Amino acid sequence: MLSWHAPQSLAAETGLLVLSATIFLYRIFGGSNEWLRTHGVILVTYYAVGGVVYDELEGWDLLDTTYFLTVTVTTVGYGDMCPESAMGKLFTVGYALLGLIFVFAALNPLLEALIFVKDLILRPCTPKDPTEGCVDDSLTIDDLRKGGNWKFKYGSALAGPLLIFILGLFIGLIVMGLDVVDGIYWSMITMTTIGYGDISGSGSLERAVLCLYLPTAVAALADALAAGGKKGTAK
Q: Which one of 2.40.50.140, 3.50.30.10, 1.10.287.70, 1.10.443.10 gives the CATH number of domain 109-234?
């Protein structure tokens, strides 16, 4: 007598479904969307394959795997989740390295969008003329053009991380239920990728939100450090 057996893993089925949907969307929209043709497919495939493999090796569902991979590739590394099986550990060694390459490459458009929004917000504050307000006659025009308004430059470099830090504070207070001190502490430890692991997301909603917040926070800090370094040498 034939009998039907339910799938042993919802995560494996979901991962395959996501991968199939991505391939379907790629075939329809791939010719008109550069990001989807390149990084988008790789990014979704990375998480989908990870969902299937970690379900088989560690018994994680798709959300837990997505959270673990995001915490891993952003180098936050809370330590609240880690593979326990030998095969899971070996798989993570190679898969984490692939993630560092693929995920950050796919996040380039996000970083560019953050820079665009930051510049758009700060545009009204940008000096129209580098000589405006100058009272030091010993400085030449070339000096002014080279240095510009260094206070504004450093201020604009810090604007992005400051906004992301405030967003992280609200996530800590509203989503994770932290008090103000723990919220400030968690937001800074997370954004700087220190990730002690004493405070981390445990619920499904928290981990889903963190999967979106962590790449944005790390990208904003990386942009600020790069911009600050360039502006420091140009001063």
A: 1.10.287.70
Q: Where are the domains of the chain?
A: 10-106, 109-234
**DSSP labels, 99-144:** HHHHHHHHTHHHHHHHHHHHHHHHGGGS-S-TTTT---TTS-HHHH
- The residue type found at 8 is Q
8 Å CB contact between 201 and 58: no
Token readout for 7 is: 């799938």
The pTM for the full model equals 0.65
71-104: burial string, b at 16+ Cβ within 10 Å, e else? bbbbebbbebbebeeeebeebbeebeeebeebbb
CA pair distance 224, 216, nearest whole angstrom: 12
Q: In a structure prediction context, what are the per-residue pLDDT tens digits for the chain, which is 235 residues long?
A: 444 444 445 555 555 555 555 554 454 444 446 666 677 788 888 999 999 999 999 999 999 999 999 999 888 888 889 999 999 999 998 999 888 887 777 766 666 666 666 566 656 555 555 545 444 455 454 554 555 555 555 566 677 788 889 999 999 999 999 999 999 999 989 988 888 888 988 889 999 999 889 888 887 777 777 665 555 555 5
Q: What is the CATH T-level fold of the domain 10-106, as seen in this structure?
A: Helix Hairpins (1.10.287)
